[in-house]
Amino acid sequence: xxxxxxxxxxxxxxxxxxxxxxxxxxxxxxxxxxxxxxxLSFLRDTDTPTAVMMPVAIGLGVVGVWVLYxxxxxxxxxxxxxxxxxxxxxxxxVGPALALLGVFLIYPTxxxxxxxxxxxxxxxxxxxxxxxxxxxxxxxxxxxxxxxVWLVVVTGVSVALGLLIAVLVDRVxxxxxxxxxxxxxxxISFVGASVIWKFMYAFQPAGRPQIGLLNALVVAGGGxxxxxxxxxxxxxxxLIAIMIWLQTGFCLVILSAALKAxxxxxxxxxxxxxxxxxxxxxxxxIPALRGTLITVGTAVLIAVLKVFDIVYxxxxxxxxxxxxxxxxxxxxxxxxxxxRGSALAVILxxxxxxxxxxxxxxxxxxxx
Amino acid sequence: xxxxxxxRWLNRSFVHSAVIIIxxxxxxxxxxxxxxxxxxxxxxxxxxxxxxxxxxFNFTQWTTRNYADVITSNGIGSAFVNTLVVTIPxxxxxxxxxxxxxxxxxxxxxxLRDTAFALVVGLMVVPLQMALxxxxxxxxxxxxxxxxxxxxxxHTGFGLPxxxxxxxxxxxxxxxxxxxxxxxxxxxxxxxxxxxxVPLSLPAIASFAIFQFxxxxxxxxxxxxxxGTSKDVAVLTSALSKLVGSKGQAWHLLTAGAFVSMxxxxxxxxxxxxxxxxGLLAGSVKG
Lengths: 368, 287
Fold this sequence. Notes:
heterodimer; A: mainly alpha; B: mainly alpha; MetI-like fold; 2 domains; globular
């Protein structure tokens, strides 16, 4: 229908010729695939000036994928397949997604489980040895313990703080601005946040000027400067504080939206009946927000379970700050013990699955 | 002043001061880094950043040298370009692939459709940590290791389950009549998809796009594993974390570098906050 305007012209007639379009679509798909292959050497060639490389690479990635879909769909429509082409069309639409999922999630999951039962170089079957190691090794026990502390403290504090701030900002007129400020860390990377906090925790020996805000305050109060990231009674909590700083805004924004959905009449009725603000909070607001609290809590739980960047950048697991995901990275890419690394990945998977199921379930309940 | 009014006033001022104190504390670490990034290296070593607040208009103490240094001679400039090269396709490709799949799951009929969809949703629970070594080995064999194409595909694969699920829940709710009348007028599935479904789904696409864009921009693990830290491919997060490792006390470089890496996320955050919040809520289920 939308091609009608073309049919009058010569170009239109040419375009309407089935063979020509077929050839064009075929050429487009082949060319895209070839360009993708060629891009491997071109994009890695350090002599290519960035001004050329950047638009080419971005254009390639963005346009290429559309050309592939368009080309295969046109090919399918024009090839003399009869009714078969209708049957094959869903493959053009879902095929790429399923293929990518197969290559990047399904196949690796199976291989990782298999590798977790084999030795460092995946040469011999070792049974559950890697798992036994994971649960008995001293450093890993520290890691599991730390992860537990992370889970409890980060989830507890950021959800509670998010809720508290949501209730507070609900009563001021500059609510949007206040929420933005607290939410802002959510936009930046864990690495960026780590640099920001490393600077907060900066430490100089006593007598030298302190450039880290925390130690400057300690010294101003007459104390000795503290190595926040080295002292074992503080360091894990110093890292946890970063995660709380990042996650509270997320909890705040979502809880605040849910808070606004509670009908005002109910709250006012309770207040007129003589309920104190504490009673309103505990007996009306909290029960009304229960579903949202679970969604938010599980989302934070998942993020914390997989926390890696902060520990990697701040301490790299030294001084008893290890966590499972960082240790997994070290086993995989530093010690090259694929068996142990894979076993830790499987343990992460097993820990994430139940939380994830709870999360998706509560999200779906709230939608319906 | 009556007792009641007095109490209300006290209550009010408590709320205001609590909110203002919390906001102040939350912003303080970022402000410290922002101010420090404009101070000369020597000043930074000898005094805290807060001392500048005593005489903020003494312009001799401010400098942009740190930014020039970190961008030109410490690889942050090229890392910025690399991050763009990684992030834009790694946002557009998964959305495209997921949108086509979501359309098929919602509006096409084919065998095993529901099973395939359940599989896609089920894969949301798999943490990407499970995929690192097998995919890396595959990449080494195919020569995709350390290539932009490789990391685009990896981000696409890991982002797909959530993207498909989110776009499906939107696309499947589009009015049935609209699509059916398009088919009666002779539109192919491809035309219906590009002319109707994509334009109508723009809100959902925008929310997910912003989420995925920031996710990729801020990712460290995937880029460490599949791209590495060599200067021609390193992205901002890995370049910055390398800088922390090699020049941990060079605060003038670290603070400036951190700000360069935050620039784009902050712009996105302030300009598209509404979509950002929506995308974030949706993205809270990312595995």
